[in-house]
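Worked example (supplementary).
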Amino acid sequence: MPAYRPPRIALSEITPEGCFLSRRAFLATTAGGLLVAGAGARAAQAAALVAPKGKYTVDEDLTPEGDVTGYNNFYEFGTGKADPAANAEAFKTTPWTVKVDGLVAKPREFGLEELLALPLEERVYRMRCVEAWSMVIPWTGFPLAALLDKVEPLGNAKYVSFDTVVRPEEMPGQSGFFQPLPWPYREGLRLDEARHPLTILSVGVYGKTLPNQNGAPIRLVVPWKYGFKGIKSIVRISLTETPPPSTWNLSAPNEYGFYANVNPAVDHPRWSQATENRIGGGGFFGANRRDTLPFNGYADDVAGLYAGMDLKANF
Amino acid sequence: MPALPKRFHSASVWALYGLGLCPALAAFYLGATGRLPGNPVKEFEHLLGIWALRFLIATLAITPIRDIFGINWLRYRRALGLLSFYYVVMHFLAYFLLDQVLNIPAIIADIARRPFITIGMAGLVMLIPLALTSNNWSIRRFGNRWSRLHKLAYVIAAAGALHFAMSVKVVGPEQATYLALVTLLLCWRLARKPYLKRKRQAGARPIRAPETEKAAG
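After joint prediction of all chains, the assembly is encoded as:
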């Protein structure tokens, strides 16, 4: 933990990009204006977002920030690992609202400011990608259950469905001739999984608001499931009675299940899931091939959710 | 097209070997010193595989380039073919040593169970006899059988492009490009004989070249 903590900037205090851009046009006409505008842009990209440490942490080295924010799967910005960081700069995350509806007593839209006012905490989680690589990431966020409580799910609500924003004009992967997936990107959880204390909506990483490539301004983190369940840039959360469709499952049902719990005993059809490559090991020889743990090391917390279930069939 | 003076031919082939190995050397240096971002082993493995495929395609492009444009780069074909072999071997070694870190049971399971790895391994195995016979002695020794054996290069290129396309989560423009190039080259094999025949007839009619040649011979 760094000794110096920059003051926390409320998101409401960050200049909206529209205002910022028009200010920049004005500043650009004045001497030295560009320098000022440049400093403003950096602040808006990654505002400090410091939250107290929660009880969940991992006794492993953190993945360097440059890898966490530079090595991403976010197909809305391209399929290469470096594409999101390269292509997400024009993505506008203010203003932002999340619509919560479906089988709830009080459906409504939440402004991002309201979500940021929920009690935030920092949690260090393992992140295991279905592609057999992994990271250790300090997220800032709040339990999804805290948001669900606000809308009061009805008795027949069994599942929670999530949608990513669709903005072809700002997301190059959503426009043009080649589009890797049907949009919007969708994910889902069982309601008990969604309400589990480990399941969070993250609004920050490494003590700053989420960079666009990591799913700004708000994304799901479910640390015992493969990374693709962690849907990014969420605009809608809906409670349903039947299992919601999920993008990768629709795209290749034999490769990506609805549950997608990290499981070293169930291989992906095209590669083994028994081991994983820890990102950020520094070159070939520092690279860390390590055993993958059942439920990504969170079995004590979550195995009970799946008692009696055949995890090979429900992969 | 100005032809390269003959005295530079041999040097240009050696330069091709040298240049051709540069991507692997540069990537190895960056990876070994921790300067490849993200997942360095995968980056390196992937780079070696892509270059193997590029050299395979370049090898097979020599004949159509000569047929269609009349440019004879036959002297580079052996170097290109051997470079593709070297890259495939390095690609495998990166997987074996750096990625799987000598975990032989895992590798055997991969080869047996994952079709894209099975296909890739088959490509590597087929390349071995071609690499071993890429010398003048073998060409003289095996004659017609040498040409037939080396037609395997088409099967290997197809295996390589398929291996690449099947390895990714979503087939994108990059994989589609390699598949298309290999398909084109395979189609050329089928179209080649009729094309050359027509070209010969068209060229022959006004000057009656074949007859003249025969008469001279």
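Two points are worth noting when inspecting this output. The radius of gyration of chain B is 20 Å. Chain B has one domain: 20-197.
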